[in-house]
Amino acid sequence: MSINIKQRFYFKIFSSLSLIAAVNFVYAQTSVDPLDAPTWETVHKTMLFNEEVVFDERVKVVVPDVAEDPMNVPVSVRVGDIGEIEEIRVFADLNPIQKILNFYPGKIEPFIAFRFKVQQSTPVRAAARTKDGVWHVGGHWLDATGGGCTAPSVSSGLANWEDTLGDVKSRLWSRKDQPDRLRFRIMHPMDTGLASGIPAFYIELLELKDSNGDLLAHIESYQPVSENPFFSLDLESNRYQGLTLTGHDNNGNQINKVLQ
Amino acid sequence: MFISMKPTVRFFQPHDNVSILMRTFSVLILFILTIQVSKAAELDYNLIAEPVVEGTYVFVGSTKYFSKQNGGNIVNTAYIVTNAGVVVIDTGPSYRYGKQMRDYIESTTGLSIIKVFITHHHPDHFLGNQAFNDVPIASLSGVINGIKLQGNAFTDNLYALIGDWMKETEAYIPTEVIVPGKFSIGGHEIEIIALDGHTDSDMVIYDHTTGVLFPGDLVFHNRTPAVANANIQHWLDSISKLQELNYKYMVPGHGAVISDEHAMIQTRDYLSWLHKHLQNALDRGLAMSEALTLELPASFQSLDILHEEYKRAVLQLYPDMEQNYFN
């Protein structure tokens, strides 16, 4: 008797869940936020200036479900086959500084991975703009207990951080059947300005150029990107050597490095 | 349980209308929340001690992660009944746990507690200390420093994870520094061994009289090891030292009591694999978010909460490994 009722119970839960999934799928084709966040309208306005959007599962945002360390939340954004991408904006609705990074993939793959700081649980989103001006939006809810944005950087408490400021280390991996992987790290405190007595101090611009000095891609980063940021990018296989990285922070300190 | 299902069955009659479905769904969620709240109102750990050998008992906790359902009872705490009174090993995740543990011990043994030992500075092992504030609470100086440094942050974090179970809990710092070595207490020859690796300071307690070994969280049994403050190489070295001891029973920090090496081998194998696996991910140029989603070997699937702890391990260990990669 109780087994029958139990079975019916689970069956009904299952069938209603699949109905809900179907409803979400329909939403994804319209403009209703699949993350169901009360903040969507606001970030649509502030981050994307109310321009045309579709929620699109092909914009894949990977973040952990729970931010174990709010100073170092890994995120990767990979845009599937939706045509040429002009710009990718990464932002977190409920962060005190929502804007995390704008990435212009230019001549490289529409993929970027790095770490960032959060203050509380929030949707983490990436919006990829195609040539027709439409933003394709993907995202994931991140659960966090907080503390990442209003804590000072570790290096701002160290005496010698200035010695290594702007130092770049990098490596390029050529990989079978996959694009080459470039990873580079820049020494920088990336202070948010939200910790008491420590002004905002962060890398604003990074440009990746080929050996002829032609621009391949560029990144505009903001305060939430983690200290000593570590970026991963994907490039066409075996095409590039003698890449250079240039850029500057918001105090005018220059970054200029031939990548290994 | 049986009665409580009735309304949900009624709610889930087929409807074409989506809004009714959504409304129904939210009613279901409210309903589930109500059950959770009424469960939380009791807040009883229902502690029952299991004997290890005569006079030595353990409160075996769940092998899951902290949750509002388990109140943080994911840990093993223990006590030894001696001629002079009861010796307690670790005090659990909250003041409430400590009080319930103490009530149980005092009412079942009729004896008073003469000493508390804390194996390491993680919150599930020492946050019950307040319930023993009239008893000497002893640990290694490294453990005590760890509690001084991180105790408050751990406490805040547990309030977020288990909520009301933590009511009135504060990080109560052990009152007595103990040095490694052998001593006698109530007719038991107790040896304190200072090791590290799970944390910067892990205290192992070995009762030579009964042959029971308390390795703290240096050993996990059928449960994925937690590596938040770990130094994996040191941890592996510590396990080798534990393997040399001639114990009869071992009370791991998490998981069932065991009489052979199996739990140590499990812990060792997972840690060595984890270290190599993450290093390999770095060597292949994987970003942290990619390391998070890698497949895990079938041989570890028997460890409880493998996927949860693995993800936590990536989040805890990868940033430093990345920084070191370029240093």
Describe the protein's architecture and organization:
The complex is a heterodimer of chains A (260) and B (327). Chain A is built from three helices and 15 strands. Chain A is of the alpha+beta class. Chain A has two domains: 1-30; 31-258, Immunoglobulin-like (Sandwich), CATH 2.60.40. In chain A, the strands form two sheets. A nine-stranded mixed beta sheet of chain A has the order 1-8-7-4-5-12-11-14-15. Chain A is globular, with a radius of gyration of 21 Å. Mean pLDDT of chain A is 86; it is low at 1-29. Chain B is an alpha/beta fold and 327 residues long. Helix content of chain B is 41%, strand content 16%. In chain B, the strands form two sheets. A seven-stranded mixed beta sheet of chain B has the order 1-2-3-4-5-6-7. Chain B has a five-stranded mixed beta sheet with strand order 8-9-10-11-12. Chain B has nine helices and twelve strands. Chain B is globular and about 60 Å long. Chain B has helices at 2-11, 18-40, 95-109, 123-126, 141-162, 232-243, 262-283, 288-292, 306-325, and strands spanning 50-53, 56-59, 77-82, 85-89, 113-117, 137-139, 176-177, 181-185, 188-195, 202-207, 212-214, 249-250. The chains are: A alpha+beta (260), B alpha/beta (327). Chains A and B meet through helix 1, strand 3, strand 6, strand 9 and strand 10 of A and helix 1, helix 2, helix 5, helix 8 and helix 9 of B.
